[in-house]
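Exercise 3.2. Students should predict the tertiary structure of the chain below and write it as structure tokens, then compare their answer with the key that follows.

Predict this chain's 3D structure.
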Amino acid sequence: MIEIIAHRGYSADCPENTIVSFDQALESGFPLFELDVHLTLDKVPVVMHDSEVDRTTTGTGAINSMTLEEIKQLDAGSWFSAAFANERVPSLEEVLVRYKDKAHIFIEIKSDEELLLESVGELLLKQGWINQKPQAYDTSKIPVPGVSLISFLPEQILRAKKVIPDAAMHGYLMVEGSQDAINFCTKNGINGFLPYIGLLDQEIVDMAKSNGLFIGAWGIESEEQLGIASALNIHGITVNWPLIARQNLGYT
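Answer key:
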């Protein structure tokens, strides 16, 4: 069975990376969800995909040029629908407190700042999500509760492995899967291999599996791509519409 991960929460029906979106994912039966983090001017990790607030709030400007208090004044829901007016940008700590023992959270590290990972690690430890003791996990099954650290930035994944060694997964996001990417993962103890579905083929999947890697595809935007993921028999998919994905995969 393919693990279904709610991308930025239930982002097909709710404004992405908000509490209402994460709540909707859990209430719909999807305790695995992904989110993105950046640092504010006052060095607080907040949950947002873009480095600027313009697309998903009523504000303008870079996240790292604004304090948490300033970001908290922004409306993060109206851009999606008037029904979500006054939804706020959550801090990572709010999310960790709200969903402790209820979810597995995939935290995508968006910038190359060392302090971002250090801050995330401190919050995970403070809120009891980690204990800084490396643990062995079955890469074919994602534990709930739990936390994984993922990034397109190789140096941040290597840093995450050191700063947060007991995450269930340290995942390397990439556009195109390759033998070099598999080698990077196996050489450095990175257990998550996370390529774009549109450039993924059976040969790469088989090689990644033979090296004991969890294979999770992102960028699935159609039922056709969902079918490709199923045919490749990968471990996980990240989608904006988890309920539709579950139904199309034939899961009850």
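Discussion points: The beta strands are 3-7, 32-39, 45-47, 104-109, 146-151, 169-173, 192-194, 214-217, 236-239. Residues 9 and 23 are 8 Å apart (CA to CA).
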